[in-house]
């Protein structure tokens, strides 16, 4: 059997950053959920005690947001809107039905992934700003009670939107076979890239020809 040609899609630094965000994000979402709903206070025990969860939550959340911003700046170039992205969005039905021949070609990321990218940027900034305003005892005393209350509400809304976006992100990764493996090991097959991101493969081939 002919061995498949493998292509690097995610470098080591990007993968480490991605999985760091996964770990810190899981911790902050679960502990944050335990603060919002009394019946889920037991989730706070993932850090040892609910009291410790309240101490660690803002620090771990800040680490997650910083890593997220680093990752977003790293992948900014691949997430620029290009000609054909709007057509891809209009073809989302064909994407779900996996009618590959009717889906407009995508670059390194498709239009759906680019929309998630923008949502993560907005929510990440919102969580950082609202998180600082409500952070006891360091920053909250510098703001009025009403401002802190608004920050708490906005923080919960941004976290909820980001959680929904993450569910979609995980679902898309699981839906497209090979995506998770690519983020684990960094490489995807040439056939996989041709099927899901043909414009990215075309760019790689053109750059390869220029260097020879």
Features:
single chain; 212 residues; mainly alpha; two-stranded antiparallel ribbon; 9 helices; 67% helix; 3% strand
What's the short story on this structure?
The chain is mainly α and about 210 residues long.
Topology:
Layout: E1 6-8, H1 12-36, H2 50-74, H3 85-90, H4 92-96, H5 111-133, H6 145-175, H7 179-185, E2 187-189, H8 190-196, H9 198-211
Antiparallel strand pairs: 1-2
Helix pairs in contact: 1-2, 2-5, 5-6, 8-9
Count of separate DSSP helical elements: 9
Largest sheet, order of strands side by side? 1-2
Residues in helix, %: 55-70%
Uncertain runs are none
> How would you describe the shape?
elongated
Query: Would you report the number of β strands?
Result: 2
Helix/strand order: EHHHHHHHEHH
Average residue-wise pLDDT: 90
Secondary-structure class = mainly alpha
Radius of gyration: 20 Å
Gap from first CA to last CA: 29 Å
Largest sheet: 2 strands, antiparallel
Q: Report the β-strand fraction as a percent range.
A: under 5%
